[in-house]
Prior knowledge:
mainly alpha, 4 helices, Monovalent cation/H(+) antiporter subunit G, transmembrane
Amino acid sequence: xxxxxxxxxxxxxxxxxxxxxxxxxxxxxxxxxxxxxxxxxxxxxxxxxxxxxxxxxxxxxxxxxxxxxxxxxxxxxxxxxxxxxxxxxxxxxxxxxxxxxxxxxxxxxxxxxxxxx
Length: 117
């Protein structure tokens, strides 16, 4: 079993607040995914939830391991960088593929092109 790390009280509070905040932001993104009706509306909340939640959780990890190791722990920044760059790009590609398919099929759910009726 892993022993509980001996964090100072101030660091434990900061880590707890950041972790709970990250979980709430991610939960809000998941709830937005369920609440919205159309595919195009559902794309936005999970992107913000995963990116925002990841950033807060990475900050909590940086604080925790920097305090425990008594040196700055920055390798978590790579995780945040990859997640915050790849998640929106993936959703943009998914939206473009769906938009192309819906426009080819003439689906009424597809957003119209600006300037057209």
